[in-house]
Amino acid sequence: MDAIQKIKPLGFPWETSDPFLFCAYHEDLYPEGDDQLGPAASLQGRNLGQDFIEKDGFRMYHGTTVPGFPAHPHRGFETVTIAQKGLVDHSDSLGAAGRFGNGDVQWMTAGSGVQHSEMFPLLNKNDKNPFLLFQIWLNLPKKSKFVAPHFKMLWHEDIPIVTKQDTNGLNTMVTLIAGTLDGVTAPDSAPDSWASDPNNNVAIWTVVMEPSATLTLPTTSQSTSRSLYFFKGGELLTEGFTIPAGHRIITNPSVPLTLVNGATESHFLLLPGNPINEPVVQQGPFVMNTRAEISEAITTYQKTEFGGWPWPKYDHVHAAEKGRFALYPDGNLIEKES
C-alpha cells in the first residue's frame, strides 16, 4: 500500500479529516503597538470588521481597534488554539479570562454553548509584534455535544518537545500538544474531548526539521486519518515526490513514511485521529449532528446569549501590564511569568 494517499495545496482554512473539522492558520507581522494595544499604523483602506486580506504584512480580522475576533458563540465542538508567536487575550461568557502566547495552547470545549472573544494585543510599542497562531476545530461525539463548557491551558513550560536525531546527526523537533512519541506523552486534553481517550489515536504535533534532516513517522492503525501540513520551508522529498511548502499530505498511517527535508528549515503540523463517524451539520460557529439541533442552537443563543457577556466591550483586552494568566469560572487564578 502507498504511504501517501493524496497531496493537496493548502487553502484557507486548511481542510481536515474527521475527527477534525478544519484548521485556521494565521501569520501576521504586526507593527508597533499603540496605547490601545492595537497597531500604531493607519488602518485606512481596510474592510474593518471583515479584514482578512493581508495589507502591509497583517490583517485585523474581525477587530476594529485591536486585531482578533470579538465575542462570538460556539456549540458542539472544541477549539485548540496554538499561539506560537504573539499573545491572545481570552474572555468568555462564563466570566473566565486569560492571556496566553509564545508557545502556549488553550484547549476549549464549547459543549452546550459559550461565547468568547480572542483578541491579539500588541504590547510591544518599540518593535514589531510578530504573530503566528493555529486554531484547530476538533469535533465532539453526539454523547458529548452538550457537556458543560470548559477550558484549560497547556502552558509552554509544560508541553514536551521530543528531539529526533537521524543517522547524520541532524535534528527534528516534535512538540507534543496531544499524543505520545517515544514514550513521551503530551499534557492531558480537556476531559470530555475525543482526544481524552487514547484509543482514539488523536495527536497534535508541531514539527520543525533542520535542513537535510530525515524523519520517519511512526505507524498507527489504518483506521486513523492522518494529515501532515507543510506550511513553511522549501521542499520535502518523500516516496518519490518533491513537495514544496504550502501542501497537505494525506498519509496511510499504517505504512512507514520517511521524510527527507530540503535545504532550508521546514515546519509542519501533524493531525492524526480516529474518525467519530457521525453526521456533521455545521452552520457558522455551531457544529451538531442534525439540522434541527442547529436550529435549536441558534434559538437558544438568541434567547440566552449562552450566559450573556460580562465584559465591558465585545473586543475586550486585558491591561497592558498583565502577564500570562488564566482566570477560571470558579475564580481560580493562575499567573505565569511573561
Automatic annotation (TrEMBL):
One protein family per Pfam: Pirin_C
Residue intervals of the Pirin N-terminal domain: 56-138
Residues of the Pirin C-terminal domain: 205-307
InterPro entries: Pirin (IPR012093), Pirin_C_dom (IPR008778), Pirin_N_dom (IPR003829), RmlC-like_jellyroll (IPR014710), RmlC_Cupin_sf (IPR011051)
SUPFAM superfamilies, per the entry: RmlC-like cupins
Family affiliation: Belongs to the pirin family.
Record PANTHER family: PIRIN, PIRIN-RELATED
Protein name: Pirin
Classification lineage: Bacteria, Pseudomonadati, Bacteroidota, Flavobacteriia, Flavobacteriales
